[in-house]
Structure formats: C-alpha cells, structure tokens
Write a structure and sequence with these properties.
The protein has 650 residues and is an alpha+beta fold. Helix content is 56%, strand content 11%.
Length: 650
C-alpha cells in the first residue's frame, strides 16, 4: 500500500531439453516477469518455439475462427472443464468448423440475395406511378430510353415538338423514348433542364405486380435466412462454452510454447532473465529444485524492475484508475490507496443525495453481478458502489437530501420531508410537525441553496483542494528525495509547496482570520518558494507560479457540481409536483417527468461527476508526485477461468 512490492532479479540457466518442464513450472506458479532477450550477445540467439507450438497455433487459429463465425461470447465460469477432456475432444473442432463455415456461406449468400431484392424494390418503387410494363423500358435496338428525375419547372417544349420523342411523366419520374439517331440531342436538352438519370429495373410486368412478387420473394428469403441464423445460434449455444474453454487452453499452451522466444539460447543451453517478487523468491526456488537447472538471485539492480501493485482486496478495484493514468516508477508512491479514499469522497460530496446514493449502490451491485466475468467492468461496478456509499452518507447526515428533496431524520421514529428555497418553506410537509430543532445533534443538514450552504460548500471544496494538492507536493518531495537528492527535491517540489502555503497564509491574514504578522510570514514563505522554483527551473518556475493556485481553485467544482445536481433534481420535483400536480390525468405526466428527469440526473451523476472526480485526481493531484512510465508486473503464465488441470470438487 502506497509502495509497490520489492522485486528481486533472478537468472535461470540450463540445458534446452529442460525448457518444456521449466515452461510448465513457470506457468503454474506465475511468479517471474521475463525480460525479453535483445539478441545482442555474441554466441547467443533468440530461441524457437517448443515442439508443440506450431500445432497449437494451427488449432488456435481454427478455434478462434469458429468462435468468430458463431459469434460466441464467454459466459461466467461455473464449472471449469478438465484439460484432459478438452484434449480428448479437440478432434470435434473440424466437424464444428465445417458446419460453421457452411452456415456462414449460406448466410452470406442469403444476404447477397436479400440485398439485390431490396435494391430492385427501391428501383421499382420509383416507377410505381408509370402505367407501363417495366419490361418495355429496356431491350430496344433502335430506341433509347431515358428515365430519371427532372425539376418541376423544367421546360420540355422542345422535346414535345420532336416527332421521334415520346414522354411519360408521373409525380416522381420522367421516362423519355427517343429514336437512337436523336438520342444525343435529347440527352443534351434533358441535361440542360437538370435531368438526373436513374437505372431502369430489369424486370417485366406492371410495377405493382412486380413489387408484390419481390416482396413475397424477400419475405421468403428473410424467413430462410432467419432459419439459418437460428441454426447458427443453436450450434453456438450447444458448443459455445466448450469452444471458449478450448480457446483458453490452447492460448495457454501457445504462451507456454513461446517461452524460448524470450530467452537467450545456444545450441544446447538457455539463459532466462526476469524479476520475481522478493517475498515469493523462496517459493520459486523450492519449485525449481525439482529441475536440473541453475539459478541466481540478486536485489533490485541492473534495470527498472516491474511494478506489482500491492493493495488490500477492498482497494484493488481502484488500481484500474492508477493503470489508466500510468504505471508509477518503482521509486514513486503508488497512489491507489489515496484514490480509494479521495475519489468516492469527492463523488459523494458532488452528488450528496441519499436517494441517488442508494441508486448508485444498487446499480454498482448489478454491474458486479451481471459482468463478474470481466475484471475491468466488475471493478467499475465496485468503484460505483463505493462512491454510492459515500453519496448516501453525505446525503443522509450532511445535506439531508434525497432525490432533490430535503429531509430531516428525527430520532428513530420519524422521517420528515420538507422543501426549501433559500431557507424558506414551501409545499406540504408529510404528517410531521415542524419543531424548533428538527434534527438531532448527529445530523448536520446543510441546505445547498441557502446562502450560507452554497458558500460553505464552495469554501469547503477549496479547503479540500488545498489539502489534496499539498499532499501531492509532499509525496512528490519524498519521491525526489529518494530518487535524487535534497537539493533536487527542494527545487522541484518543496518550492511550490512553500508558494502554496505562503500564498494561502497571506490571503487568510488579509481577510482577518489570522493576525497581521501572519501576512508578512506568508509573503516571506511565498517568496522563498518562488526563489527556489526559479533556481531550480529558471523562468519556467515563474510561469508555473499561478498554476499552483489555479489547481486549488479547480476544486471548487466539487461544490459547484453539487449545487447544479441539486438544482436539476429540485427543478424536476418542482415541475412535477407544483406546476403540473398529481391530480387526475396529469398525474401520469408528472410521474413521467419524475422518472425521466431523475434518470437523467442519475446518468449525469455517473458521467459528469465521475469524470470530474477523476480529473481532480489525474490533473491536480497525480501530476505532483507520479511521473509514470513504469512497467506493470506481468508474470509468465496464463490465468485460466474456464479450464483446470484437476477436477474441482464442489
């Protein structure tokens, strides 16, 4: 927590005949993060895949092709399939692949026929107003037929005067029959009038009859195509789980077979280099005792070790945000533990509504249950659930608010609802008498739209920003002190921390909250910080000077978004209850407005509030102490979900 796990460098060497056993062992334990060989040493070269690699790759391509053709999606794993069973049954893949390809060819053929019929229908529709057999629009040797659209204000007088021309018009289309020897002149006249040509359908019969026939054929093709689709779905349902398990197993085999591609080898020997978590080195050493190989273990030296995030289980979902930003260097603080506290805290303060908080908890739990097979999506669900808990807490005990409606909790016996506008009561209370002190001492209702409430929210947001940014600079100072030296840490981090603290002390003194001498102290601290910044970064230090304060002011968005969310929810309630009401048929309108309005606020809370809370972490906080660019720990081996080597006993 706050620090990635210590890593140890391990080198393994031995005879190439042991590579297959070593690959199986490393895959089983999944402890060593391999360093790919760069092929730069004399006498060594990158190895080639293990013997079963080519056959495995061929099978894997076939399995993935079938999965794509059948549009198979993985389901949550209930009972992993035995590897031995998969290898016995893998011969069935040829039969399934043959069926899948045959059905796919039939689907494509039907799609082509349907597309052609639809195109013909569109053409025939254009000629529906022409009372003529469509077969008469083509196939002449001495007559040219022009069919298309022409503007309504076109002048066709010249064409009507020509003896070799006959014109048929409807509201949608114009057809011109002309002798072949006059076709060029007629075409020129038509183009001058804005004529736009369209293709003539190559069918015979009246347009209405042809259209009916085409619709009938299209309906039949769609039915046959639907039957093929059902057959594909049936095969996907019958073999889907098995195919997913096969894909996983042969992907694991493919990865194991690729181990030599990452190593330095000679004709007979190999050398493997990698990183192992220090507290797991003994486990791997004990496992390696069973193989005839040699290994050495050293400390963190000779390169950047990978980063293995080390957090308690409850914090692990928030590692997603750390990885999205950038993997920290091994000497930097790992921010997951902090973002675990601050992200849902900021989210809860922004929304601050017990009703929405409960909704977020339920929606987060739904995501976890529905998409538990996806680590990333499930992590988002857990993050939303945690954010909902903070939102419920602030909505209950600080803002006394649910779905834009203010309430006070009175002891354990009453739940009173009342609405406020700048501290003034309006509307009904629900069978709860108004009393002088309607809330117990453990509840601190801060109404957002009262003058003091809005000011307090904005001021509190800036104070939170001051603390958060200061923490970022302190962590950055410690990072630089570890990685470089005191001088570098003073110039790059402590300088801006002094600027921030000096400026805030001086400002607070100006408004009279601190004695007069504190203003001079604050200015002195600010100048010391500015001097250090200029010494360390030159003119850039002066340019970054305002950024420190703008970062803190940026946290005012916590209060501002809280006010806007409440304003939206309050407006929805006001329109539904006060402007429309719940009487008669209008009750349906009011309920619809309530559902749509609060669903909109709920969605905006997830998107807008979630993004802004994350932005404060990334832009205002992480930049103070996370340089990033580290390599995430990725041990050799394949994590299996759908297959197992040994039968799982319930």
């Amino acid at each position: 927590m706050l620090k990635s796990e210590n890593m140890s460098r391990m080198t393994i060497s031995g005879h190439k005949q042991n590579l297959s056993d070593l690959s199986n062992l490393l895959d089983k334990h999944q402890l060593i993060h391999l360093i790919d060989y760069n092929n730069e040493d004399d006498g060594f070269k990158i190895g080639s895949s293990l013997t079963y690699g080519a056959q495995t790759s061929e099978l894997l391509v076939k399995i993935r092709s079938v999965i794509k053709l059948l549009d198979v999606s993985p389901n949550p794993s209930t009972s992993p399939k035995l590897i031995s069973d998969i290898e016995k049954e893998i011969s069935e893949i040829d039969s399934i692949a043959s069926q899948a390809h045959k059905l796919n060819d039939e689907q494509r053929d039907f799609d082509r026929q349907i597309e052609e019929l639809v195109s013909q229908l569109e053409q025939v529709d254009l000629f529906e107003g022409i009372d003529i057999d469509l077969d008469l629009l083509s196939g002449y040797s001495s007559i040219q037929v022009f069919a298309g659209n022409i503007p309504e204000d076109s002048d066709l007088t010249l064409l009507n005067k020509m003896e070799s021309v006959e014109i048929i018009q409807s509201n949608e289309i114009t057809v011109v029959f002309v002798a072949i020897n006059s076709s060029e002149e007629v075409e020129r006249i038509l183009l001058d009038q804005g004529f736009r040509s369209i293709d003539v359908p190559l069918v015979s019969g009246m347009s209405s009859t042809v259209k009916s026939q085409l619709n009938s054929s299209l309906s039949k093709l769609n039915s046959e195509k639907e039957a093929i689709d059902h057959e594909v779905k049936a095969i996907a349902t019958r073999h889907g789980d098995w195919l997913v398990a096969c894909e996983e197993h042969y992907s694991a085999l493919s990865e194991k077979s690729s181990l030599p591609l990452k190593l330095a080898t000679t004709d007979n020997m190999f050398v493997l280099d990698g990183w192992v978590p220090s507290n797991s080195v003994s486990d791997l050493q004990q496992a390696l005792q069973n193989l005839d190989i040699y290994y050495e273990v050293g400390e963190e030296s000779g390169g950047e070790p990978p980063i293995k995030l080390d957090n308690p289980e409850v914090m692990k979902p928030f590692e997603l945000f750390t990885k999205l930003y950038s993997t920290p260097k091994h000497w930097e603080f790992e921010p997951t533990a902090i973002i675990f506290l601050t992200y849902p805290l900021f989210f809860g303060l922004m929304v601050g509504d017990a009703g929405y908080g409960l909704a977020y908890i339920l929606f987060g739990q739904f995501i976890i249950t529905k998409f538990g097979y996806s680590t990333e999506i499930a992590a988002l669900g857990k993050i939303l659930r945690m954010a909902g808990m903070w939102t419920l807490f602030f909505g209950t005990f600080i803002f006394a608010e649910a779905f834009g409606q203010t309430f006070y909790l009175i002891g354990n016996d009453y739940l009173g609802f009342t609405s406020f506008v700048f501290g003034e009561h309006f509307g009904p209370t629900f069978n709860v008498p108004l009393i002088d002190n309607p809330h117990p001492p453990w509840q601190l209702p801060i109404h957002k739209f009262s003058p003091y409430g809005a000011q307090l929210m904005l001021l509190s947001s800036v104070i939170i920003g001051f603390i958060h940014v200061s923490l970022g600079f302190i962590l950055g100072f410690i990072n630089e002190l570890r990685h470089h030296n005191l001088k570098h840490a003073l110039y790059s981090k402590m300088s801006f921390l002094l600027i921030l603290w000096g400026g805030v002390i001086a400002l607070v003194s100006v408004v009279g909250l601190l004695p007069e001498f504190a203003k001079l102290l604050g200015i002195a601290v600010l100048l010391v910080g500015l001097t250090l910044a200029v010494l360390g970064e030159g003119i850039v230090g002066i340019l970054e000077f305002p950024t420190v304060f703008s970062n803190v002011i940026s946290y005012a968005r916590i209060g501002a978004i809280g006010l806007s969310d409440y304003g939206l929810a309050f407006t929805v309630n006001f329109i539904a209850f006060n402007l429309i009401g719940l009487e008669g048929i209008m009750a349906i309108v009011s309920i619809s407005i309530l559902l749509i309005g609060h669903l909109t606020v709920f969605t905006l809370g997830i998107i807008g509030t979630g993004i802004n809370s994350l932005r404060l972490q990334y832009v205002e906080f992480f930049t103070k102490f996370v340089q990033g660019g580290g390599t995430l720990y990725d041990p050799f081996g394949y994590n299996r979900k759908y297959t197992t080597e040994n039968e799982v006993i319930p």
